[in-house]
Amino acid sequence: MKTLLIVEDDRGLNKGIALTLAQNDLAIQQAYDITSAEQILSSNKIDIIILDIHLPDGSGLDYCEKIRRTSQVPIIFLTANDMEPDIVTGFELGGDDYITKPFSLMILRARVMAVLKRTASRGEDKITLGPLSFDFGKLEFYKNTEQLILSKTELKLLKILVANPGTILTREQLIDRIWTQEAEFVDENALTVAVKRLRAKIEDDPAAPKYIKTVYGLGYMWAERPNP
Predict the structure, then answer these.
(1) What are phi and psi of 100, to 5 degrees?
(2) Which residues pair with 26 in a beta bridge?
(3) Which of the residues 23, 44, 79, 133 has an alpha carbon 20 to 30 A from that of 148?
(4) For the segment 118-158, what is each residue's pLDDT rounded down to a tens digit?
């Protein structure tokens, strides 16, 4: 059974959402502010969050940003704001969907189930390659028993590479996908540095890499396929 956390200070709305979504075989956790949400999230396995943007003790946008430092749990924003900048900010901070008030509970239920279906189709983002174990959902990465601490850039680079085993990815493609809107201002040396640092963490011999191969004149390729 999946567990949903509702973070909404309007108790009536919170209860209405809980009653509606509990019918979909979801376990429900309820919070009315960020403080109580943090306590629930730290002690329970949460599969999806419905998060109001305006909460008594802070901004849901700021809280989303904090969650994204350690977790990729799906987040659906609720807000009375339908201003375009708020919507854009929500997605840029890692939100998976955005619903403005007032809304139909049936539509919210459909959105929640759609997000859960999408995340389930990603196979929980777990990949094992010999001594390497990557869990992109929990942001936990190991080489044998040693936990690897990856920067945001290294994380993006790793995820793109392992998602395309055996495929040559050009330097231009990698820069565009890692730095997105800032790509045109990024020096190509930044990618070289990121590859070097990632190799140092995952390769036994970074000078003769097994996983991240250089394709001279083109770019890089992830050479290993996940274990069956």
Answers:
(1) -95, 145
(2) 2
(3) 44
(4) 776 555 567 888 899 998 877 889 999 899 999 989 998 99
The residues pairing with 193 across neighbouring beta strands, listed in sequence order, are: none
- Alpha carbon separation from 190 to 68, 155, 158, 185 (Å, rounded): 23, 14, 15, 11
Q: Residue 8 corresponds to which amino acid?
A: E
Please report which residue ranges of the chain form alpha helices under DSSP H. 11-21, 34-43, 60-67, 84-92, 105-121, 152-162, 171-179, 188-202
Residue with tokens 């008594």: 56
CB 48 within 8 A of CB 76: yes
Q: If DSSP codes are grouped into helix, strand and coil, which group holds residue 151?
A: coil
| Residue 157, number of CB atoms within 10 A of its CB | 23
Q: 0.85 cut: is pTM over it?
A: no
Is the distance from CB of 51 to CB of 26 less than 8 angstroms? no
CA torsion angle 105 9 112 27 (round to 10): -100
Written as one string, the DSSP assignment of 88-130 is HHHHHTT-SEEEESS--HHHHHHHHHHHHHHHHHTGGGEEEET
Domains along the chain with CATH numbers: 2-121 (3.40.50.2300), 124-222 (1.10.10.10)
pLDDT tens sequence across 50-68:
999 999 999 999 999 988 8
List for the chain the helix, strand, coil content (%; round to 5).
Answer: 45, 25, 30
